[in-house]
Amino acid sequence: MRKYLHINLRDRSIQTEELHGEAVIRVGRHFIAKTLLKLGAATVDPLSPENPLIFSAGPFAGTNFSNANRISVGCKSPLTGGIKEANSGGTFGFALGQLETAGLTLYGASADWVVIRITKEGEIRFESAEPYMGKGNNEAAALCSSATERRSVSAFAARWANIWASRRASPSPTPTDVLPGSRRAAAWVRSWAARRSRRSSSTWTRCRRSTTARR
Fold first, then answer.
1. How far apart are CA 110 and CA 123, in angstroms?
2. pLDDT interval class at 154 (50, 70, 90)
3. Which residues span the domain enclosing 137?
């Protein structure tokens, strides 16, 4: 048996679901796709509070099996409008497994920047994210480590709270309006797409010339 957490950021309510049998195994991208389809995420605005954010760990998370501690994260993509998941390494999946937790879903939007802390005893606390504001990943991780006991998990809902708060303030925000540093990311994506387009065009031209020469 493993637990699954449903966390509502609006009222900070938490529902715990118990997973048994095949439900413990059918997690990760399968679980994310099935859940998002069930919740009707395909029809929601990806930058709205109605777009749930799902974290899902595998059935062997928390063990020493190779590749068992990866974490899947999924929602409706603001970039493509598609429903998919991203897969990551690190210690987050391992920590969830150690807590006998299969994952969690974040619903709604928090009025304030917040950190969700899950202790090794299973207590879930909402703490201010102010100490982490403006910090890079390494610095924020160091602050988390200094304030966190072993086998606890800190999940940041702050970035999503910022997106959804901005959504309420502006009818049609773009990702670059509400995500810190995303202008650089968007510029990189455009640059990559342009390079890929030029490379594809160049390859097609070379193939065309080669075919013409053989004729």
1. 19
2. low
3. 2-174
What are the pLDDT digits (tens) for 173-202? 444 443 444 455 555 555 655 655 555 555
Are 41 and 128 part of one and the same domain? yes
Q: How many domains does the chain divide into?
A: 2
Exposure string of 138-162, with b = 16+ CB inside 10 Å and e = fewer, is: eebbeebeeebeeebbbbebbebbb
Does this model's pTM top 0.85? no
Give residue-wise pLDDT tens across range 62-113.
Answer: 999 988 999 999 999 988 898 878 999 888 999 999 999 999 999 999 998 8
* CATH at 44: 3.60.9.10
| Residue 114 and residue 129 in contact, taking contact as beta carbons nearer than 8 Å | yes
Residues 163 and 197 in one domain: no
- Tell me, letter by letter, the H, E, C secondary structure of the chain: CEEEEEEECCCCEEEEEEECCHHHHCCCHHHHHHHHHHCCHHHCCCCCCCCCEEEEECCCCCCCCCCCCCEEEEEECCCCCCEEEEEECCCHHHHHHHCCEEEEEEECCCCCCEEEEECCCCCEEEEECHHHCCCCHHHHHHHHHHHCCCCCEEEECHHHHHHHHHHHHCCCCCHHHHCCCHHHHHHHHHHHHHHHHHHHHHHHHHHHHHHHHHC
